[in-house]
């Protein structure tokens, strides 16, 4: 059976969450922490948090890309992982609650060509306006994509790190969670089988063990 692999972007393919880096560097850590506290306590939805955080960012797209180029690093083993996955007939797609027009160029620079499903923003220098990919409270219903792939007969794999990945990971047959992040803790607390990872070569080795 073919594998369909959904991969989160921020904090999963990258070392840091690029959306958080943008918000924190423009709005300050205190404002960001306050919104994250509200989110973690369940007082606001992820969709609402993203919209409010985006509105705090007053940068042009080139400014945002330049800032992230110096602050975020893509896992150097990700491009190789995608190559091996394709060699094994697997489908790999990136699913993100982050910003498509920022993630797309970064993946391209890393030499990765995979489908990308993400939110986006209008780059208003008076504050960004989020444009969400669907109507869900998460701002991007990743679980719906996993369910659709499963319904089409695929064996599904989910790779993620944070709150936006909880539902997508739950929906998948096989899960990988970035070490020491929210998704790993979420799975552990609920007794859900999940393999912790630090880099994508570990995931390739787990899915396709060398003979
Ligand atoms: Mg993430």
Structural features, described:
It is a single chain. By secondary structure, this protein is α/β, with parallel strands linked by helices. It has one domain (3-18, 71-207): Rossmann fold, CATH 3.40.50. Helices cover 46% and strands 18% of the residues. It has a 7-stranded mixed sheet with strand order 4-3-2-1-5-6-7, with helices on both faces. Helix 1 crosses helix 2, helix 2 packs antiparallel against helix 3 and helix 5 packs parallel to helix 10 (200-207). The chain starts with a strand and ends with a helix. The mean pLDDT is 96. It binds magnesium ion (MG). Magnesium ion binds at residues 8, 10-12, 17, 160-162, 164.
Topology (elements, then pairings):
Blueprint: E1 3-7, H1 18-27, H2 29-40, H3 46-56, H4 61-71, H5 78-87, E2 91-99, H6 100-109, E3 116-122, E4 129-131, H7 142-151, E5 155-160, H8 166-171, E6 174-178, H9 182-190, E7 195-197, H10 200-207
Parallel strand pairs: 1-2, 1-5, 2-3, 5-6, 6-7
Antiparallel strand pairs: 3-4
The protein binds magnesium ion.
Residues 8, 10-12, 17, 160-162, 164 line the site of magnesium ion.
In short:
By secondary structure, this protein is α/β, with parallel strands linked by helices. Helix content is 46%, strand content 18%.
């Amino acid at each position: 059976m073919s594998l369909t692999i959904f991969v989160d972007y921020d904090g999963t393919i990258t070392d840091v969450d690029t959306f958080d880096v943008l918000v924190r560097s423009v709005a300050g850590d205190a404002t960001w922490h306050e919104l994250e506290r509200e989110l973690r306590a369940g007082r606001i939805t992820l969709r609402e948090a993203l919209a409010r955080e985006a509105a705090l960012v007053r940068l042009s797209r080139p400014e945002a890309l330049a800032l992230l180029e110096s602050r975020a690093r893509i896992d150097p083993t990700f491009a190789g992982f995608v190559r091996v996955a394709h060699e094994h007939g697997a489908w790999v797609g990136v699913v993100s609650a982050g910003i498509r027009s920022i993630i797309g160029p970064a993946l391209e620079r890393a030499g990765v060509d995979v489908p990308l499903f993400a939110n986006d923003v209008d780059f208003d220098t008076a504050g960004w306006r989020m444009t969400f990919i669907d109507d869900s409270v998460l701002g991007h219903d990743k679980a719906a994509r996993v369910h659709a792939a499963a319904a089409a007969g695929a064996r599904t794999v989910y790779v993620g790190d944070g709150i936006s990945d909880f539902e997508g990971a739950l929906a998948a047959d096989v899960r990988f969670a970035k070490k020491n992040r929210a998704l790993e803790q979420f799975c552990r607390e609920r007794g859900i089988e999940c393999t912790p990872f630090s880099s994508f070569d570990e995931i390739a080795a787990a899915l396709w063990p060398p003979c």
